[in-house]
Amino acid sequence: MCCCPPTAMAVPFPNFGSYEWLLPFADVKHVFQDLPLRTEGTVLTVVVGCGTSDLSRELHTHLGLPQVVSIDNDEEVVSHMKAQHEDLKAALSFHQADLTAPCSHVVADGAADLVVDKSTLDCLLCSEGAPKLVHNIYRMLRVGGCYVVISFHQKEFLMSLLSLAFSIESAIDLQRDVGPDVLALVLRKGTEELPELQKALDAWNVQMPKDLMSETRREALEADWLQRLRPGASALPLSEAYEVMISSSATWMRSVSIPCRISNRM
To answer: Which residues form a coiled coil (predicted)?
Structure first.
């Protein structure tokens, strides 16, 4: 996944334990509490791009969701998460799969009641994979099922893609201590069949600008980053890194490979 500098996650896995993109569960819990979710029977929740987040565990232990299937494309991450959640293996399962390819071998078509996406779509929007992810999530969900997207992108931009497959139930602004606010979108799969969905999603992707990192933008980022480094420092505090890379009006996160690290100092 590509929406962060390659060196930003340089701590050797699995020594850094759990890692939360955007916000911890405590800050997004209310989004799920307001959903009309059943907590008994065969209710199935799917977490796409789970990484080493505690989200899957929290959905089960704090919200009572009985069955949570978590998917990531990194085999080492999946092995780590299985080991970490051995005590909950009856309720939590972790699977290695490419979310840009059909995943019916992990989640049968129409089987999921809820799909949760915390910044996985953000990462794939940097590539050709976003339409494929959206289509796979559409296939996973039952009619009337919910797709919750937590993203740093703006609502209008996200809906230009997601409205091709889903209806919007609500949009919730989530504040952070560092960086711009985050958006939670609650979407629902309708009853109408969409046989041409993949074609529509691919057409959306073709229309999006591909040259998101011009040479001028790259040079400006490098200059701003280096200018902010303190004498003798090799890393920027995270709050300053956000200021350099993301503005509150940004539609896209700009990723760039530059010879500097992000510090976790706030």
So the answer is: none
**3-class secondary-structure state, position 91:** coil
CA gap 193, 255 in Å, rounded: 37
Residues in CB range of 138: below 8 A, 6 or more apart: 165, 166, 189, 194, 197
The closest of 141, 46, 58, 145 to 97, measured between CA atoms, is: 46
pTM confidence score: 0.76
Residue 46: closest CA among 115, 132, 94, 107 = 115
CA 201 to chain centre: 18
The answer to whether 69 touches 95, Cβ cutoff 8 Å, is yes
Q: Is residue 5 classed exposed, middle or buried when 0-12, 13-18 and 19+ CB atoms within 10 A define those classes?
A: buried
Separation CA 102–CA 51 (nearest Å): 19
d(C-alpha 193, C-alpha 223), whole Å: 50
Take residue 188 and report the two structure tokens written for it: 């629902």
The conformational region for residue 81 under phi > 0 = left, psi -120 to 50 = alpha, else beta, is alpha
Name 184's bridge partners: 150, 172
DSSP one-letter code for 200: H
Confidence band, pLDDT 50/70/90 cuts, at residue 9: very low
Tokens of 247: 């503005």
Helix, coil or strand: residue 120 = helix
Residue 211: the pLDDT is 55
Distance CA 189, CA 140 (A): 10
Lookup: tokens for 56: 């899957």
Residue 53 and residue 67: Cα distance in Å, rounded?
A: 17
Cα angle value 223/224/225 (rounded, 5°): 90
